[in-house]
Amino acid sequence: MNPVFQYDVHLPANMATDKKYPVVFTLHGKGSNEKNMFGLVAPLADEFIIIGIRGNLPLGAGYQYYDLKSLGNPIREMFDEAVKQLTAFIHYATDKYPIDPEKRYLLGFSQGAILSMTLALTMGDQLKGIVALNGYVPEFVKTEYELRSVKDVSVFVSHGEYDSVFPVRIGNETATYFMDQTPRLTFKIYPSDHGVSVENQRDVLNWLKQDADLSTN
């Protein structure tokens, strides 16, 4: 398989040849790129394989995974294709690199968070967990997609209290939705705009290490 996505892969420096590693796939926001996400999870680079997936559609100086009809309203055909291709990419990377398929995580911001949550709902326990920063689940995903159970998927959702792109109400609605889907939900609101604060980053790193049973390393 030749993936449709360009990507950056960071392997642990002292990688054991006979070991499988947890992985974090990062998904960036609209108009950004995969390198912009690495700084968020760089402190995990000795313990996780980190793969930054670049959106395959150019947008200004950056990229996106799908286009919009209007804010909060993805073009359905493009969104469907992105979900399909990202699912295929996760399986491709798992075969190509020494990834533990029981410890696959997605971490997305904004457009990347929207896709991370959608992939959790369509892949179910093929994922160990997701981190969704300042995003939402499209209504058509909830009502028209074939959804799998996420009761065993760990979900970290966070939102900026002063988010000027997706109001904090959307973060609360997203948390309420997942509260009914999984007992493994962590939801936090930070006093920030449409971005990731230092406190938010610290909480995400600690959550990932604990969920992957690496917190004592």
Molecular structure report:
The protein is α/β, with parallel strands linked by helices and 217 residues long. It has a single domain, classed as Rossmann fold, CATH 3.40.50. Helices cover 34% and strands 26% of the residues. The protein has helices spanning 35-41, 76-96, 111-123, 139-144, 168-179, 198-211; strands at residues 7-10, 21-27, 49-53, 57-59, 62-64, 68-70, 73-74, 99-109, 129-133, 154-160, 185-190. α2 (76-96) packs across α3.
Furnish the topology, listing elements before pairings.
Elements: E1 7-10, E2 21-27, H1 35-41, E3 49-53, E4 57-59, E5 62-64, E6 68-70, E7 73-74, H2 76-96, E8 99-109, H3 111-123, E9 129-133, H4 139-144, E10 154-160, H5 168-179, E11 185-190, H6 198-211
Parallel strand pairs: 2-3, 2-8, 8-9, 9-10, 10-11
Antiparallel strand pairs: 1-3, 4-5, 6-7
Helix pairs in contact: 2-3
Quaternary state reads single chain
Order of helices and strands: EEHEEEEEHEHEHEHEH
Quick check: average pLDDT? 96
How many discrete domains?
A: 1
- N-end to C-end Cα span: 35 Å
The CATH architecture would be: 3-Layer(aba) Sandwich
Organism: Paenibacillus aceris
Keywords: Hydrolase
Family: Belongs to the AB hydrolase superfamily. AB hydrolase 2 family.
Protein name: Phospholipase/carboxylesterase
Which descriptors would you attach to this protein?
alpha/beta, PLipase/COase/thioEstase, 217 residues, hydrolase, two-stranded antiparallel sheet, Rossmann fold, 34% helix, LYPA1-2/EST-like, 6 helices, AB_hydrolase_fold, 7-stranded mixed sheet, Phospholipase/carboxylesterase
